[in-house]
Design brief:
alpha/beta; 10-stranded mixed beta sheet
Length: about 625
């Protein structure tokens, strides 16, 4: 390891929880060869702030100005008002990338597939996560002209990507993460769905099925239309027989519908309909939590650079749709930090939040230049579009502090107004940066010129990420999610179990003289206070956890944030263990109707291992 130079902090030491310190020591702080930490949390923030501030010199800042920016960026993080994605915290001035999100193409050739495998290894070695679409790969059993044989199909190559991630993450400081997507109209869609129902397979992949508006129209009309799949190589159309072996079929088992192969009314009942396919997707999601659904046309309506091509995939958690070879750095504002006491009760400090948004946008824009990109194509496109992903964490805590229920119209309205405020101020800040530094290089080929007629520095500005680990550091709730439980156990990378207790609930319950270690244990066993009569009714009404909230309110909150996000929203729709498949069906349909770009459900207990659990 190269000699490490500690960065003295230019401001106050951060005040961190014990859980935050544990995570920082185990995964983020620089260690010597013997595994001993040789860096403090303050030095970590200073190290990253220095990297970000040094970019200012490229835009004309002198030494003294760079030092001032160093302190401003340090204070932004050390206050826990804002934190960037994990790779930036881990890798600044060290190995690796500062960006978390990458999308790579998979070409329909052995050379193309394994070139992407190599690129995936480089990105994941550097600390990034990758998203892929398998749509271009020809279906299982299709002809390979060069050899005269047939292809083993997308699932076999998907397995190669998964094993690559397994190999790279051995001993890694961060779990390897991937997103695999396939169009509902790909001939191998049944194999795709079947493969992920084995919970021991593809454990480093999330998967989503891409669905178009046209397909949804057929579903909503009656669902009786025959489900048509298309071979991406030949463009020939096929039907899927109902009795097909979902794990082992080939293209030869499908029914071609061109020419003499037209389907008669009598034989139509032998094949999957759109409704049948929908029911299968719902059934799989109910059983294992996967697949998620992505409304791909909705995503591409917000594609800021459609002249560069369509968006075909997202990052691993779904909040950042990206073009092939694009990358994005994320950062999140802890909105609970901006609740202040007023004469009329608690309220938001909107001016301070606006200032934080402005500084966070500049911070993330600087990272586009400071980032060490593993691939030349990614560096070229990332710097040409300059996408950033500013979002929030601590939203549930913010609602608690304001006395607003998550599952209420007031809660949803507040979520929409909060994200609109952040989005509006982010665009204003990006416009100011465009005036100082110029718009992103592809601006003239973007919707910012044609649709909005305004210059901005960044093609995309806002999203809502899950913020799993950085919310531990900030000691706040994750993303825009309700709290999982007021007391729960979190599993981290090295197998450690961390007890999480919501600090605001503990404070209020203590003030109401109902908090005790006995109560803590009760909550940790059940995940809810709703049936605990020793807790006052007013406290129970406010402090609802994820599984206390009806699915429709999860969806409505996601849609409220999506209205004001350039990119997308990562959100889990929590379902209780006894929820029927009909609940998944209803959630997916509501998400489409309300304009969400994607949706993921998770039914409690549908997997043995969960990152958050009860006693």
């Amino acid at each position: 390891m190269a000699e490490f130079r500690a960065h003295p902090p230019p401001g106050d030491e951060p005040v961190l929880s014990e859980n935050a310190l544990e995570v920082l020591r185990s995964r983020y702080l620089v260690k010597d060869r013997r595994g001993k930490c040789i860096e403090t949390p303050a030095q970590l923030f200073s190290r990253l702030a220095s990297s970000v501030a040094e970019v200012e010199a490229a835009y004309g800042a002198g030494r003294s100005e760079v030092k001032q920016w160093h302190k401003r960026y340090y204070d932004l993080m050390a206050s826990l008002d804002f934190l960037p994605n994990s790779p930036a915290l881990m890798n600044a001035q060290r190995r690796g990338t500062l960006s978390a999100c990458f999308v790579l193409p998979i070409a329909d050739s052995i050379e193309g597939i394994f070139e992407t495998v190599k690129q995936t290894a480089l990105i994941q070695k550097a600390g990034g996560g990758t998203g892929f679409s398998f749509d271009r790969l020809r279906p299982t059993g299709d002809r390979v002209a060069s050899s005269g044989g047939t292809t083993s199909g997308p699932i076999s190559f998907w397995r190669v990507f998964s094993e690559t991630t397994n190999a790279i993450q051995q001993g890694a400081f961060r779990r390897g993460a991937n997103m695999g997507m396939m169009s509902v109209g790909h001939p191998d869609i049944l194999r795709f769905l079947h493969a992920k129902q084995n919970l021991k397979a593809f454990t480093n992949f999330n998967i989503s099925v891409k669905i178009t508006d046209g397909w949804m129209s057929k579903l909503l009309k009656s669902g009786k239309a025959l489900h048509i799949v298309v071979n991406p190589r030949t463009k020939k159309q096929f039907l899927l027989p109902r009795r097909i072996d979902r794990a082992n079929y080939t293209i030869d088992d499908l029914r071609e519908i061109a020419g003499a192969g037209k389907v008669t009314d009598r034989s139509a009942g032998q094949f999957y309909t759109v409704g049948d396919m929908w029911k299968l997707i719902v059934k799989c999601a109910h059983k294992t939590g996967e697949p998620g659904i992505v409304f791909i046309d909705r995503i591409n309506r917000d594609n800021p650079t459609p002249s560069l091509g369509p968006i075909e995939a997202t990052n691993p958690c779904g909040e950042q749709p990206l073009l092939d070879y694009e990358a994005c750095t994320l950062g999140s504002i802890n909105v609970a930090q901006f609740v202040r006491a007023t004469g009329d009760g608690p309220g938001m400090d909107w001016p301070r939040l606006a200032g934080t948004v402005t500084l966070a946008v500049r911070f993330l824009d600087n990272i586009v230049d400071a980032c060490n990109y593993p691939l030349a194509d990614t560096q070229r496109l990332a710097q040409a579009n300059r996408k950033i992903g500013l979002g929030v964490m601590g939203f549930a805590d913010c609602l608690f502090a304001l006395g607003i229920r998550y599952d209420s119209h007031k809660g949803v309205e507040f979520g929409a107004s909060l994200m609109k405020f952040i989005n509006d101020n982010a665009r204003k800040a990006s416009g100011e940066l465009a005036r100082l530094r110029g718009p992103f290089p592809n601006w003239s080929r973007s919707i910012w010129k044609t649709r909005y007629k305004r210059q901005v520095r960044n093609a995309s500005l806002t999203c809502a990420a899950p913020t799993g680990t950085i919310s531990i550091i900030a000691n706040c709730s994750c993303g825009i999610e309700p709290v999982y439980s007021l007391v729960f156990v979190r599993q981290v990378l090295d197998g450690a179990r961390m007890l999480q207790v919501n600090p605001l609930f503990k404070q209020i319950a203590s003030e109401r003289r109902c908090y005790s270690s006995k109560l803590e244990r009760k909550i940790a066993r059940t995940g809810s206070i709703q049936k605990l009569t020793e807790v006052p009714a007013s406290v129970r009404r406010l402090f609802k956890a994820a599984y206390d909230i009806e699915p429709q309110w999860h969806i409505r909150m996601q849609a409220a944030f999506q209205q004001h996000c350039d990119a997308a929203v990562s959100k889990t729709i929590n379902l209780n263990k006894k929820a029927a498949p009909a609940a998944v069906d209803k959630a997916y349909r509501l998400a489409y109707r309300l304009g969400c770009k994607g949706v993921t459900v998770y039914r409690r207990g549908s997997r043995e291992q969960e990152p958050m659990s009860l006693y």
